[in-house]
Amino acid sequence: MKALKFLPLLLLFVFASCSTVRVATDFDKEVNFNQYNSFAFFKPGIDKAEISDLDKKRILRAIEENLTMKGMSKSVTPDLLVSIFTKERERVDVYNNNFGYGWGWNPWYYGGYYGGSNVSRSTEGTLYIDLIDAKTNNLVWQGMGSADLVTSNMEKKEERIREIVSKILAEYPPGAMKK
């Protein structure tokens, strides 16, 4: 009976762990990020991203929205160039639900072996956002976010893209999360 009390908590944990976005960033410690006030998209880099043009537009809109909220402006003579690239991989999770072996009473089953294995497949995508100094053409900041992708529902897909971009850019400028 006590196990039933923990079932909702377990389900919440399972669903929350599936929806998380894992973020990592890297940057040039010699760069003063306060000097960057404007940005533009680096078309040659964006064109190489191996995703649909619609998803590129969704990502670019989310990046523009996040950088604008940080006080930056889009410009034809930018301080920073923004580029993206993506990676995708199939993720396979195997869950062994072997509750035990032997004879005994259980509220769901009596006697013998019970349990088994479940296999779950999902597509995990990684979005990289590169910020390049427009004067020197050097990469000064890179953010990476990995998450399970949503492909079946357009609204959920757009919401997921905004979430991933937002969590990546929450780390820009370096030290922004510490403030």
Largest sheet: 6 strands, mixed
Text of the CATH class of the domain at 21-91 and 127-169: Alpha Beta
**Count of β-strands:** 6
The residue-averaged pLDDT reads 80
The CATH architecture of the domain at 21-91 and 127-169 comes to 2-Layer Sandwich
Instruction: Give the N-terminus to C-terminus distance in angstroms.
Output: 46 Å
Return residue spans where pLDDT drops below 50 for at least 5 consecutive residues: 1-17
Summarize the structure.
31% of the residues lie in helices and 31% in strands. It is an alpha/beta fold and 179 residues long. It has a domain at 21-91 and 127-169: Double Stranded RNA Binding Domain, CATH 3.30.160.670.
Topology at a glance:
Elements: H1 2-18, E1 22-27, E2 38-41, H2 43-48, H3 53-69, E3 73-74, E4 80-96, E5 117-133, E6 139-148, H4 154-169
Parallel strand pairs: 2-3, 2-4
Antiparallel strand pairs: 1-6, 4-5, 5-6
